[in-house]
Each structure stands twice: as C-alpha cells, then as structure tokens.
Design a protein that fits this description.
Blueprint lengths: L5 H4 L13 H9 L1 H14 L4 E4 L7 H5 L3 E4 L8 H4 L9 H11 L4 H5 L2 E5 L3 H10 L5 E4 L10 H20 L5 H22 L11 H10 L6 H20 L10 E7 L7 H8 L3 E6 L5 H4 L9 H10 L10 H13 L4 E7 L3 H16 L4 E6 L6 H14 L2
Parallel strand pairs: 1-2, 1-3, 3-4, 5-6, 5-7, 7-8
Bound molecules: Double cubane cluster.
Double cubane cluster binds next to helix 6, helix 8 and helix 17.
Length: about 400
C-alpha cells in the first residue's frame, strides 16, 4: 500500500475470510463490504484492471463490465468531509453531493482515488455542476440524461448517449466492446438483480424473516463486492439460510411490527438512522423503493434483440425524481405497497434535495387517494436530528391501525 496517500491507506482494513460462516457472519461481510472492498479494488488495480467510479443508478454499468472494468459506487454516506467541501460548495446543497465531493478533494475515498474514469449524468443541478469541479482533478465524463421518459425522442437521445459512453470507454482504455460482451454483462447483472429481488421479497412474509436494517446492509453492501460468482453464491446462501431458519421458527421481527415501505433519496451509511428509528418504534421496513433497493432490482434488462437498445430502454425507465413526470416511481411504489402489505410509507428526503422535496407532494397525494398513511422525514448526514426523527417516526407508527 506504499503508493497510496496516507488518508487512503489508513482506511484499508485486512479482510478475514471464513468458508463456514453463520448467517450473522455473512451479514457482517455485507455490512463491512464497503470497507473491505477497498482492498479488493486495490488488488484488482494491481492486476492491471481499470476502475470506473459512478454516482447514479442511471449509469449503465453493464458497459464497464462488458469491457472487463470494475464499476465502483462513489456516493459518500457520512458527513466527515462536508466542512472541507463547504469551502468550495454552497452550504445549502444536498449532503450526498457535498460529502462525495469532500471525500474526493481530501483523498479520503479510495474508490475515487482508484477510479481511472468517473462517469456522471445530468440528473439534479447540484450533481451536474459538482462534476464540473471534480473534472479539474479527475477524468470525468458526463452523460446527458433526458429529463422525460414520455417524449418520443427521449429514448433516441439516451441511446446515443450510451453509444457515446461506449466510445469514450473504448478510447480511454484501448479496447473494443462487442455486442456479445455486452449481452454477457447484461445476463450477469440480470442474474444478480433476480437474486437480490428474491432476497428482499422474503420480507413479503409476515412477520418478515429479516429486519429492515439487515435488508439495507445487504443491499448497500452488495455493490462493494466485485467478484460476480462469489457474490451470487453468497446471496443464494443468505436466501437459503433465511428460509431455513424461518421454517424452523426463527422470528427476528415481532408479528405486531407495523410494515413500512421506505421511499425517497438513496440510503446507506449514516442514513440507516431512519430505518433504526422506525424499527425502535415497533415498525419494520419491509421494502426500500429507493436507489438502494427495489428501484435497481425490480426490472430485468431485455435479453433479446439489440443489447444497446435494451440497455437504453431499461435505464431510461428508472423512476427518479429528476424525471418529469415521474410516473415510474408511483407505479413501483403502488405495487410494492400491495405486494408487501404495507401499513404505511415513510419518505426520506435529504436536506436541500429539490427534486425529491417537491415531488413529495405528488407522492403524498398518491397515498392520500389510496388511504395509506404517509410521512416525510427530511434529514442530512449528521446525527444531530436523531431524537427528532425518533419522535416523529414513533408518533407516525402509533397512528397506524
Ligand atoms: S437515480 S435518486 S442516484 S439521481 S439526493 S444528489 S437527486 S439533490 S441521488 Fe440519485 Fe441517480 Fe436519482 Fe438515484 Fe441530487 Fe437529491 Fe442529492 Fe440525489
């Protein structure tokens, strides 16, 4: 690790592997995945593999996998470097953007440090303008994302952006991405999506066989596991073990717990606090509609026909608040509420996230029309609002029938 900056090398732990792990041990391997993934990425870099840093669910990562590159998530989930970021960025900006930028400029994020290329999209204004600043010290490529899924030309624009990204990757890394390789990467990721969906759908059971906190750490951690085969093996193992322990009577969640769907901004790291306060007040998070959860895994990429068109079709269909109108979010939310027999929905918005804050009214109206209780909790990457979140979540859960 002698080539790494001190701030980075200090954060790299030594992973421990044990082939006969119990369920809690496998859970730990996922909750520790982000930390341990640093070392895995370092090893892959040493083997000569290229790394591409990404920020958003709209990024068609299959292109990087088809090219034999390693895609890594760069969004930060702690407030550690926000003061440093605020020396350049406005204070009233979403914490996800400030933290991600802060970790980049302080060299404290090994994933950013190892990234040969960073790919972003024109999603919210804060993010796309931050990419311009990031471009001063990293090789940043920004895709132009249409903000509508219903305009007839949106698909054509996104398809041409995907083809441009292919060319940029080919030129940067000196390789060729064939249709066959892309189709292979699509099949690989579809398989992962299918198993992750099977995993979170276990919480359709009443009571669910895992808490919302466990589900979140699995879904968040999986993005920092880079070996496809062993990742699939681990997910299958978790599913089998969870089913087995449920069959013999294990009930980690009380039957009386109110079933909650979480929607809104991406979660992980410090924002786990939202799930924690819900589960401390006789609630259980049964599904996450956001980018950490179902939004990413609910749909499969079409495996027949032109793979580039299939990729464009899939990613443009994601229901994020940067789209207008954002009907896909409501469709998924409505479906999850039915499927998981939700007692209520809690939306988590990050402070200063305009797309989600404004769309909150639309989501609120959607659930009012369906008589399903809905609450919005706004938070940031600090822990200073924990008591306030706890009080509001407890009051909401108490009102649920
Ligand atoms: S697809 S949710 S990952 S854009 S929270 S940075 S929107 S101001 S994270 Fe997102 Fe892609 Fe959408 Fe998902 Fe801006 Fe809001 Fe901050 Fe956000």
């Amino acid at each position: 690790m002698e080539n790494l900056p001190t701030a980075v090398s200090k954060t790299i732990p030594t992973p421990t592997e044990n082939p006969t792990r119990s369920l809690p041990e496998i859970f730990n391997s996922f909750s520790e995945a982000r930390k341990n993934g640093f070392l895995a990425v370092k090893k892959l870099k040493d083997q000569g593999l290229g790394v591409v840093g990404v920020f958003c669910t709209y990024t068609p990562v299959e292109i990087f996998l088809a090219a034999g590159l390693i895609p890594v998530g760069l969004c930060s989930t702690s407030d550690e470097t926000i003061p440093e970021a605020e020396k350049t960025l406005p204070r009233n900006l979403c914490p996800l953007i400030k933290a991600s930028y802060g970790f980049a400029i302080t060299d404290k994020c090994p994933y950013m440090y190892f990234s040969d290329l960073v790919v972003g999209e024109t999603t919210c204004d804060g993010k796309k303008k931050m990419y311009e600043l990031l471009g001063r010290f990293k090789d940043v490529y920004v895709m132009e994302l249409p903000q509508s899924q219903t305009r007839p030309w949106a698909h054509e624009i996104w398809l041409s952006e995907i083809r441009r990204l292919k060319e940029r990757v080919e030129e940067k890394f000196g390789l060729v991405i064939t249709n066959e390789k892309l189709s292979g990467a699509i099949r690989e990721r579809n398989l992962e999506r299918a198993y992750l969906k099977e995993l979170y759908e276990l919480s359709i059971l009443s009571p669910p066989p895992l808490t919302g906190l466990t589900q979140l750490s699995l879904l968040f951690g999986v993005q920092y596991k880079f070996d496809h085969q062993s990742k699939i093996k681990e997910i299958k193992e978790i599913i089998a073990k969870l089913k087995q322990s449920y069959e013999i009577g294990a009930r980690p969640v009380p039957a009386s717990a109110k079933r909650i769907i979480i929607t809104g901004c991406p979660m992980g790291g410090v924002t786990e606090k939202v799930t924690r306060v819900i589960e401390e007040s006789n609630g259980v998070v049964v599904a996450y509609e956001n980018c950490t959860g179902a939004k990413q895994m609910d749909r499969q990429i079409r495996e027949n026909g032109d793979p580039w068109k299939a990729l464009a079709e899939h990613y443009l269909g994601l229901g994020c608040a940067v789209m207008t109108p954002n009907l896909a979010r409501l469709e998924l939310l409505g479906r999850l509420c039915q499927q998981f027999s939700a007692d209520g929905v809690i939306e988590m918005t990050l402070t200063a996230c305009q797309p989600y804050a404004v769309e909150s009214t639309t989501v609120h109206n959607f659930f009012r029309d369906r008589n399903l209780p809905f609450l919005t909790l706004e938070t940031d990457y600090s822990t200073g609002d924990l008591e306030q979140l706890r009080t509001r979540a407890a009051a909401f859960l108490e009102t649920l029938p």
